[in-house]
Amino acid sequence: MGIEQKISELSKLREQALAGGGAQRVEAQHKRGKLTARERIQLLFDPGSFEELDPFALHRCTDFGLEKQRILCDAVVTGYGKINGRSAFVYSQDFTVFGGSLSKVASEKICKTMDLAARTGAPVIGLLDSGGARIQEGVDSLVAYGDIFMRNTIYSGVIPQISVVMGPCAGGAVYSPAITDFIFMVKNSGQMYITGPAVIKAVTGEEVTLEELGGAMTHATKSGNCHFVADNEQQCLEAIRRLLGFLPQNNMEDPPFIDSGDDPNRVDEELLYLVPDDPNKTYDMKEVILRIVDNGDFMEVHEHFARNLIVGFARMGGRSVGIVAQQPSVYAGVIDVDASDKGARFVRFCDCFNIPLITFVDVPGYMPGTVQEYRGIIRHGAKFLYAYAEATVPKISIITRKAYGGAFVVMSSKSLRGDINYAWPTAEIAVMGPEGAVNIVFKDAIDKSENPEETRQKLTAEYRAKFANPYIAASKGYLDDIIDPRSTRPKVIAALEMLQNKTDTNPPKKHGNIPL
After folding, report:
1. Which distant-in-sequence residues (6+ apart) come within 8 Å of 418 by Cβ?
2. Whole-angstrom distance, CA of residue 150 vs CA of residue 447
3. Is 436 a catalytic residue?
C-alpha cells in the first residue's frame, strides 16, 4: 500500500472517530438540547487551536457483546489547545458512545490529559456527560475512576481544575468534580447525585425528581456543590473562558495582568452615601465592590449559595484579585456554617494560585442559635479563620461598618497576617455591638434606674460614640489607616503595587490539619 492509500485510510479512520456514536445518536443528543462532545470543545477553545489526543483508542472489553461494538475514540474526546491565547487541556465525555460511560481506556485517556496538563502547567477542564461506570467492564471501570480521583487530588493546587456538568454525573463519578476547584452546571440538563430517585424511594420512601435531587439550582442554592449556573451550554462555555482570564496557568505563575483602561486613581463620590447613618439599616455590598473594581467587572462565585457572604474575581489596576465580602442585605452579613465553608474554600483557592485577597468587612459576628451550634459552627467557622491565617498572598481589608467579636479577627485582621488594613470612618470595631455590650456591662445600672429603657438608650449612645469607632484600633496599630471611602480604589491599588513582591512562608510541614 502506497503512502497515498495510507493517507486515505487514515482520513477514513479519522472520519469514523469524528462520527462518535453515529448520526442517530448525535441527533438524539441535539433533541435533548445538548451539544456533542466535539461541538462543546469547538466553542470552548480558540478557533482552530484544538489538537486531539488518542482519537484511535478502542475499549478492550471482550464480554457482553461489546467486542463487536468498538467505536474509535471510545466515550471521551481529549486534547489541548488555546483559550484566550493560553494553553488549556480538556476531556469531553461523549454521550453518543455508550452513554458516555467510563471504561478503562477512557480513563487512561483522561489521566494522560491530566498528566500532560500538570507537566506543562496548564488548566484542565472536564466536560461531563456520562451514564457512569461501564458496567460491562466490572471492577476495571471502578479502578478507572480511582485513577482519575488520584490525579484530581495530587494536582489540586498545582493547576486549576474545572468541572462542567452538562449531562448526568451520578454515583462515584461525582467525586471527581467535587475535588476540582470549580463546578459549572447547565440548567435542566446537568445533574449530580449519589443515588437516583428510584433508589432513594426504595430506601427512604422519599419521592423526588431528578432535577429536584441533583439539578443545577439545587446544587447552587442548597448543597453548595455548584459554583456557577448557566441557562444553556453556550453561555456556560463562555463563562469558563471568562473565569480562566482571571486565573494563572499554574501555582508557579502570577495571574495575567490586563490593562483595563480604568483610571487607577479614580474616585467615586457615591461611596460616601452607600453606608447608611443608621447602623441597623442594610445596604448592598455588591454596589461597593462594583464601584471600586476595574470597569465594574466582577465575576461572582457561588452567587446563589450562602448569600450573606460574597466571593468572586475582579481586577484592580489590571491585577487579578479575589474579593471576599459580607453582604449586609442578607442576614446582616453574619457568618454562619455555609458562609464559613464558602469563604474558606475561596480563600484557599486564591492562596494556591497567587491571587491577592481584597476583603470588605461588615460583620456583626457569628450566627447564634442551636441550629448553627449543632451543625458545627465552631468547626466550620474555624475553617474560615484557618484559611485566612494560612494564606501568604497579599491581603488587604477594608472595614466599611461593623466588625464585631471574633468575626473581626477572622476577616483578614492583623492577627492573621493581614498586610494592609483600612477602615472607613463609619467603621465600628468592638468585642460586640453597643446594645449587647451595654446590656452586659451596665446591667445593674439599667435595672436600678427609674426609666430602664431611657437609661439603656443613653448608655448605648455613649458607648457607640466612645468605643464603636475605628480610631481606638488605629491608635494601637491594628488598622493602617482610616480612609475617605471615595479614595478606596486608589488606596487599594497602591497597596497592591507595594505588595507585588511580597514573600511570606509557613513552617515546613507535610500539610496542616484544617478542621474539616
Report:
1. 359, 388, 395, 396, 397, 412
2. 63
3. no
Q: What is the pTM of this model?
A: 0.94
Instruction: Report pLDDT for 66.
Output: 66
Contact predicate 68/77, CB 8 Å: no
Residue 58, classed as helix, strand or coil, is coil
Q: Which of 245, 376, 406, 436 is catalytic?
A: 406
* DSSP output for 459-473: HHHHHHHHTSSSHHH
Query: What confidence tens digit (pLDDT) does each residue in 316-330 have?
Result: 999 999 999 999 999
- Set out the domains of the chain in order of their start, with CATH numbers: 3-244 (3.90.226.10), 269-432+469-498 (3.90.226.10), 434-467 (no CATH)
Instruction: Measure CA 288 to chain center.
Output: 21
Q: Which among 19, 28, 157, 171 is annotated as catalytic?
A: 171
Average pLDDT over residues 388-406: 96
CB atoms within 10 A of CB 242: 14
Active-site residue (options: 172, 245, 376, 436): 172
pLDDT in tens, 21-70: 889 999 999 999 999 999 999 999 999 999 999 998 887 766 666 666 77
Examine the residue annotation and report whether 407 is marked as an active-site residue of this protein. yes
CA gyration radius for the chain?
A: 26
> Any residues with CB less than 8 A from the CB of 173 and at least 6 apart, and which?
102, 128, 130, 132, 133, 145
Quick check: is 172 catalytic?
yes
Other CB atoms within 10 A of residue 65 CB: 9
SS3 238: helix
C-alpha cell at 282: 442594610
**264 CB contacts (<8 Å, ≥6 apart)?**
316, 317, 489, 490, 493
For residue 430, the cross-strand partners are: 404
In sequence order, what E strands does 38-85 have? 51-53, 76-83
H/E segment holding residue 289: helix 285-292
Of 270 and 138, more confident:
270
DSSP assignment of 12-42: HHHHHHHTTT-HHHHHHHHHTT---HHHHHH
Residues in the chain, how many? 516
Q: At what angle do helices 104-120 and 139-154 cross, to 10 degrees?
A: 10
d(CA 176, CA 239): 21
What pLDDT score does 369 carry? 95
Choice among 17, 407, 423, 430 that is catalytic: 407
- Candidates 421, 435, 422; CA nearest to 468 is 435
C-beta of residue 130 within 8 angstroms of C-beta of residue 95: yes
For the stretch 446-473, pLDDT in tens is 888 888 888 888 888 888 877 788 999 9
First-last CA distance in the chain? 63
Concatenating the DSSP letter of every residue in 421-448 gives: EEE-TT-EEESS-HHHHHHHHTHHHHHH
